[in-house]
Amino acid sequence: xxxxxxxxxxxxxxxxxxxxxxxxxxxxxxxxxxxxxxxxxxxxxxxxxxxxxxxxxxxxxxxxxxxxxxxxxxxxxxxxxxxxxxxxxxxxxxxxxxxxxxxxxxxxxxxxxxxxxxxxxxxxxxxxxxxxxxxxxxxxxxxxxxxxxxxxxxxxxxxxxxxxxxxxxxxxxxxxxxxxxxxxxxxxxxxxxxxxxxxxxxxxxxxxxxxxxxxxxxxxxxxxxxxxxxxxxxxxxxxxxxxxx
Length: 245
Known about the structure:
Keywords: Signal. Residues 1-20 form the signal peptide. The structure is a single chain. With 245 residues, this protein is an alpha+beta fold. The chain folds into 2 domains: 35-139, no CATH class; 147-244, Gamma-B Crystallin, domain 1 (Sandwich). 24% of the residues lie in helices and 33% in strands. It has 5 helices and 14 strands. An 8-stranded mixed β-sheet has the order 5-2-3-4-12-11-14-9. α2 (42-54) packs antiparallel against α3 (89-98). The protein is globular and about 40 Å long. 33% of the residues are buried.
């Protein structure tokens, strides 16, 4: 075969190769990582604790032993809501940095719960105390396709996230799946018993959920869903929620 014939054959195959590469990229972009529990790692624990202490704010911490061994941070200076955009922006950065090795969230103290009353000042928390309280680490377990396709819209004002909302019980098992626009309060008249959120974008998704209507009053829980990740299930009565990147 003459060189020109080889060139013609190569050029004719190029669109197929490009299409195959594009398809592989699309599949990869649609895959999300999901996580599960593992033994708590001392370095991971102290890295997070040191980060929170470095914020200079007064925070307490307790362990949700019945909810996957999660570490929950609460403000100790005064009863107030957690705000990842202003007052607690540094805390949000600490959570983002450790979010793939620890189960982490923060809670409003406008109305103090029984669990929050057992919170210990972060500066006094040790690895041994965390283990004794039932704290667990977090590890990647695998990947799965996103339930909804990545939004084609690129402006932050119109990005979306997915929610799995279970009104029948705990565990996010019998869930309804919906896609919501960020920076808006969403809610329902009858509460969901458990909720999970999915982030199909590359940036961190900041979520806040309330056991009240209209994203108001106290008792809210705030957490971060890392980019390209299926968030953990929260067994918590939820009437309204808000998320933004």
